[in-house]
User: Fold these one by one.
Assistant:
Number 1:
Amino acid sequence: MIESDKLGYRKHVFDEFEFENGQVLRDVEVEYTTRGTPKYDDEGNIVNAIIYCHRFNGNCLSIEDLNQLIGSKSGLSDFNFFYISITSLGYPESCSPSTTKLKFDFPKYSIRDCVNFKRKFLSDVFNINSILGILGVGTGGYEAFTWGCEYPDEMEFLIIGSSSFKTNGYRYLTSKALSSLIESNDAYSDNVYNEQLSKIMFSINSLIYTQYFSKRAFQNFTHDELDMLMDAFVEEGSTEDIYDFKFRNDSTLNYDMEDKLSNIKAKTLIVGASEDIYYSPEFDIYPLKDKIENLEINIFDADEYVYNYDYSRFIGLFREFLEEFKK
């Protein structure tokens, strides 16, 4: 079942979706949007589909962040790709603890579940079982790595930005601490969503924002400027449901594709920032050199923010990388 929406996205409903742990949900909603025009081969298969996998705090409409790359006036507009952006499993616009009202009884899910959620959608809605490529950023990069490792014959290229192939060290401790913080509050197990949970989300978003700065930015801003920027970020995320956040956070705890990276057959472009605190070139990008066969790496200089959504600097890089995949 597909129904249009005036805001630029659509909804599809699975009859059911089975998680890796065997649990099954029925009447599962999936939110998505598309850009561009599909091209078909002689057998009616779409041949120019690129899947966009959004960040931890995004949804399918986050593809608009890429307007400098995929917009009608962008430097890649003549490449005629068909972009499909799907709101991931666990997000309120698709199937999540809050929208199903299951709260803490929602099935625990993994990054692989998120990938299979999108694979099922592509098969059901577009009859797509192989795609041209995947573009993933942040935790969307986790999905791209997982997709490339677990289903290496299903895509021709991967483009992954500001991401990693596993959760370890600082990221693991941060995610574990956030999960423990939520569980330690008795209100988490209540049947009524109360003010205590909203206050916890306020604190969590304050901590998360520290990851959105480059190392250099910490030195460039005054305390007042930092306070103002953090307050704006926290206010924007103040309505996020704590159950959606926790399940999404927990899905990354055991994420680790390191031993499977050699499975990747797709041509792969990894993009990262020299000043990134959360995803560092030293630990998250350079180790890939010996693990993925057909690999390109681009480390850019982040002047202030790492996640400022300025993709204009990458037009030349992306155009050169994608040239062989024009349809």
Number 2:
Amino acid sequence: MNGIAYQLEPLRGLDGLTTRVQEAPTPGPHQVVVRVRATSLERRDLMLIAGTYPVKARPGVVPLVDGVGEVIAVGPEVARAALGDRVMSTYFVGWNEGPQTQELSSQQYGATHDGWLATYVVLEKDSVVQVPPHLTDAEAASLTCAGLVAWAGVTKPVPVGPGDTVLTVGTGPVGLFAVQHAKVLGARVISITSSPDKGERLRKLGADEVIDRNEIPDWEQAVLGLTGGLGAQVVVEAVGMLTLPKSLAATAYNGQVSLIGAFPAPAGRPAGDPLGGKYIALRRVAVGSRTDLELMNRTWSEHEVRPVIDRVFPFEEAVDAYRYFEDGDPFGKVVISIP
């Protein structure tokens, strides 16, 4: 049965997001065909439209990398999935385990390979990952990018645990996932936000202390005060270069800043030495491998953690979902449901 797929023409704004008829795919020997049920948006999806993401979108590609659906066909060489399985995919098409390489990073669903904003998606067999069974479709469609990159931020190279303080900077999906991951692992969490309303939501999500940057512009000093002058062992920096100097100042000696994802080049560079003479591991985190994703899913299943969903749009309103994601200041994931 034919379906509908959105396709992306970069550098045309949302006018470059159009639909076409999608024929029901036939899997190759090493492929899986999934009937999509839900997908969700990431910051990288806006960057792909604008042409500012490090990996360029293939003209006509089906966008979006987060998604969930039901396996409806499998190739003869596939052992990781069976008909009827509820699955998601990895972010990178071929990064299954071990170190990341530039070559592995260059192949991504929703950018170089067709993604999830369609009736059907074709996955390479090693990209298929089983979904935590306690999650709804909207929740399961929220984990692949923001969920996993936040997981890498608090678990690589060594997972945080009791006795550690994690500082989260930013209240987008990555920041929210980082709060949830850190609390599941037993760490103390301090979160930076921009409003009392978001602060209250962060506390309900598990943050132990919340600092409103509008009330306390020198929030890095407040973090040092809350940690007895020591700073946070791990900082999940999900805003970028504008807040990085403060994040570095709030990091403990021999601590680590996990700088999340790709960012457009800043207008200017901060003056001076942002490290302040301290030895700090600054890791630029780029999501994770299939092994990382499966470990995260097992942890979430064990603790029955659920992601924060801001709003769910119907499939025919996908362009409105993009617009809301960009301009609406969502708190949590923006999901598109596919009938």
Number 3:
Amino acid sequence: MTNYWLNSAYQTLLPSPDGQLLVTDDFLRTYLLRPELSLVTESCEAEHLLHQRLTENPRAQIADQDIAAMADLDIQENYRVWLRYRSRLLAASSLEAFYMSLFKGDGVDVPPLFVMQLAQIFVRHILGENAHPLEVRMGEIFFRTQKITVLEDSIVMGADEEVVSRNAQAGESGNIMDLLKGKSMLTRSADLDVLYEENAAEYWARNEEFDFAVQLNFGHEPISHFCRVLEKWIAHFLGIAVRITPMQQISDPKWSWHVGLDASATAILNKLYNKESVESDELEKVICLFRLDFIDEAAVTKAQQGKPVYMAIAANEQQQLKLKPQNLLFNLPLAKVS
């Protein structure tokens, strides 16, 4: 059993008897430690008092005049944003219920960073302590943008964009940067910055560095592990068992439903489904295709029973993979629950 992603705040939450996550005071306190709300040398007395009050009781009712008393207008706005967020958190029956509510109605009204942090917490909860390290690495895609690079022989690599950018800004040419230039795959047996089955256990020592690259080609282990994470994500939120299989192409004349797992994939699948012209350079952005089959047909609309759902992940114009895991929760052809 391995503990990982200790900085995700997962350990501060309380699992309910049905496996959902319940908000605790300690979880709320983690936001007070973030740079947006933490105290600094310039913090005024009113900010100190408010911060101390919320640290002692993170559910304390805060009046508008308490916020207006702070000297820094940016800090005032940060508190207003967080208090709105806290209000919605505490009104929901679970963290999962809150997450689902974000994508209904008028759209997401909380900072995108908070949404990404919740996705990490959910992946951590879903995978548990006995997860395969490649599953955990592929779970990073749910909440961290990946930089996609195609190397020689059409090898598709994904590396954490923030890590790649940080190395580039520092003027370093470490293993990840070398990898993205197509060098490291030649000596991958000695290159631990590429995570694969044989060296997967190395992930645990660096699980919060997010500095392992992975090969994302069809037929390679990471994509298979990605499928397992997708299946568990659906099972946790929707209570539905599915089987997801990687594919190289869609040749189904009765293709009736698809879900893009990111904005680029959605646009490409829509064009293919509608038999619109798709340029070759756009098709080349597709990283992998998938087939989703429902194990429980009763969960599906009658029109879709016995038929697969096709899915895809793709790079955008900036060569990024920006997954939208909520698409799996809201865009499947599910039967309405009476």
Number 4:
Amino acid sequence: MGSSTEPDGSSRSDEEWERFLRESVTGAADAPKEPSARARQVANRLRAEPGRGQEGWRSCTPARPRRRTGWYVVGMLAALALLVVALAPGRVADLFADDDSPSAAADSARPAQASPTDAARRPTREEPFRGSPAASWASGAEGITVPKAGAVGWMSEAEVERALARSRDFLVASGLDRGVLRGERPEKAIALINPHQKDVQDLLDTALRTPSEKSDPLLLFSRFEPSRTELVGDVVKTRGRLTYREGERGALQVTADVTFVYPVTRADAGGDDEIVRTIVRRELVLSWDDPDKVITEPGTFSIVSYKYDVTNGGCGASTGYFVPPFGTDRRADDAGTEIDPYDRSVPVARDGPSGDECRRATRS
């Protein structure tokens, strides 16, 4: 088999040239075209450049197809999500609950509606908030939102910040202090109230000595009688917020709206683990007065008003303590005003309970 030599030194076999000539005559679409002298010069120069190897003058290296790993990752994540839903459906539901849901840590504004609940899940000593909207609320002072401070009236920004912190301190000392909850005198809380506010000081003194419907320490303090009621665990769940504005005579007026959830059981329960949640929502208005205009003491406030609603806290004559209903004491009828104690979308409507105005919880 013979071969012919090209001007550039390359060679073609006789069969290739014969096929080339035959296909040129018949006009085959894929017949090889004889490169021109110019094209051969370009090809020689390109082959001489470093890294070009033996690629042809019109050749190219096709790009490698991309490996489609994205769909595999998506599939794996979807499988993991389904596994989480199957193992912990309650926690997943909390992630998509409304702004007053159990998963939200605190109030930044009044919610538009009440939060959901799962009443079928009964509380236990290990999980006293089980089945309650409060189950994922913050604990203690962490559930009370304090706004960013700004100068108001006679107070600078720094002074307003301190006043807000002390206002929250009062809520802690009056509604979260373990000694106070067990019936001890709320000394820390009283120390924050203006000692020159005589009507309030007289009320507190009478209420703590001889409680009655008109002089009831529960108006400001949360207390349980230790011989009857035992707090379950060390946690009280809270949700609420402080707001402020300029009040009379340039005072800083702070409003507190906070809900406290106390899990309790009988002090002499023995083997009976019946757990009741006493739920108290308080609204207090405090005035940090200008000492140049009102007689006061540094670091103290005057109480402008107080309101509270309580469910599972007892009805009838005041004893100075909340009296959670256990067993047969629970109301089985429709007596009392029905209230959803977790609905923070409405304001607190009254200034404390009285015999015929007991609140009956729709859920706890």
